[in-house]
Amino acid sequence: MPSFRRSPPILSILALATSLAVAGCQPDPGAPAPSTAGDSDNASQAAPARSRIVGSALYRERIATPPGAYLRVQLIDNLLADTPKAVLAETRVENIGPPPIGFELDYDPASLRGDGQYGLHASLYGPDESLLFVTDVRHALQPGSEAPVELLLRHVAAGSGTDATAAVANGALTNAAVAADAGQRRHWQCGELRVDADLDATTGSTTLSFSGRRLVLAQTPAASGTRHADDAGNEFRSKDENAVLTLAGRPQLECTLSDTPSPWTQAADRGIGFRAAGNEPGWWIEVGMGESPAVTATLDYGERVLEIAHARPDGAGYTGTTADGVELRLEIDRRPCTDGMSGEAFEAGARLQVGGKGYRGCGAFLFD
C-alpha cells in the first residue's frame, strides 16, 4: 500500500506564513526611517471639493446660431450685485450649435454663504462679440441641488426698439429700457461702481446711470475709441471691452464690461420712484410711483421680504402696514449721502424702521 504523509494542520501553516510576513515587514534597525513628508505634501495639495451645475440654455425664436458664437453662464451672488465680487463662477461654451445648448459650471461650495441668495445669468454672443440673446430674469439657484437647470434666453435685436417705443408711450417702459431692449445698453464695472451706459444712436450721446444718478454726455472727437463728456468735467472714454470713467472732482476709474446690470437701473426700468439700500445687515427698499405707492423692503441679506400694497405719505417719507400687521416707516433725508462701504455718492439718506429695528442707508429718486 502506498504510504500517505499526513498534511500539517492548516492553522500551523497560517501561523508560519504570518510570522514570515511580519518578519519581512520589520524595518532594518540600521536603515533610516521612511519619510512621510511626501505624503503630507500630497495631502495638503489635494484639490478642494468642487460642485457642478449642469443645465441647458435655449431660446424660442427661429434664428440660426451663427458660426463662432459662444455661450457664457455665470453664478451670481444676488446680494453683492453692486460689487466686483458678484460673479462667483463662470463658464464659456465655444462653437455652439442650435438650442438647447448644454453647459457645465463648476464652483467652490465654500464660497457660498448659508444665508445667501444665488442665481444664474446667461448670455449668448456672436463671433463679433455682439450680444444676441440674454436671460432677462435671474434663474434662482438652490445651492447643493443636483437637478438640471434650464435657462430661457431672450432675443436682443436692434429692430425691437419700435415696439418698445410704443410701450414707453403707454408708460410701461422707460427710455433707458428702450435702449436696453434695442441692444444699445452696456454694463460696466468701474472700480466699486456699477455703471450702465445707454447709447442714443440718433444723437450719438450716451446716458450713464449709476447710484440712482443719470449723466447725459455728448459725443466728442477722440483719437482712438469713443469719448463722451460734458462741460462739468465728467468724461467717459471707451474702446472695445475697456473704458475709463472720470466724474467731476473724483479720481479716474478703470472700467471693464460686465453682464450684470445695476439694480438701480433695473428698478428705474420697472417704474420704481425711490430706492434706498444699506449695509450690515444688507437691505434695500423700493417705493413705487403715485400718491399711495406700493413698497417692497428686502431685509437682513434677503432673509425677510415685506410688501405693502398702498403706503401713506408721511412727512418726508412713507408709512404702511403689511398684510400680517408689520408696521414700516421710511424717512428720506434729502441731503447728500455716501455709502460707508463702497464710497458711492447718493442724493439722499434713508432711515427705515421695522417694528423695533432700525436700518440706515442711502438712496435716490429715480425719476425727476
Question: Secondary-structure map with pairings?
Answer:
Blueprint (H helix, E strand, L loop, with lengths): L9 H16 L11 H8 L6 E8 L11 E8 L9 E7 L7 E7 L10 E8 L5 E4 L4 E3 L7 E4 L1 E2 L5 H9 L5 H7 L3 E6 L2 E7 L6 E5 L2 E8 L5 E4 L5 E5 L2 E5 L6 E6 L4 H7 L4 E5 L4 E5 L7 E5 L4 E5 L3 E3 L2 E5 L5 E7 L3 E2 L6 E2 L1 E7 L2 E9 L3
Parallel strand pairs: 1-8
Antiparallel strand pairs: 1-4, 2-3, 2-5, 5-6, 5-7, 6-9, 10-11, 10-17, 11-12, 12-13, 13-14, 14-15, 15-16, 16-17, 18-19, 18-28, 19-20, 20-21, 22-23, 23-24, 24-27, 25-26, 27-28
Task: Characterize the structure shown.
With 368 residues, the chain is mainly β. The protein folds into 3 domains: 51-155, Immunoglobulin-like (Sandwich), CATH 2.60.40.2990; 179-258, Lipocalin (Beta Barrel); 271-365, no CATH class. The protein is built from 5 helices and 28 strands. The strands form 5 sheets. Strands 21-20-19-18-28-27-24-23-22 form a 9-stranded antiparallel beta sheet, with no helix packed on it. The protein has an 8-stranded antiparallel barrel with strand order 10-11-12-13-14-15-16-17. A hairpin with a 2-residue loop joins strand 12 (206-210) and strand 13 (213-220). Helix 3 (161-169) packs antiparallel against helix 4 (175-181). 29% of the residues are buried. The model is unreliable at 1-44 and 158-183 (pLDDT under 50).
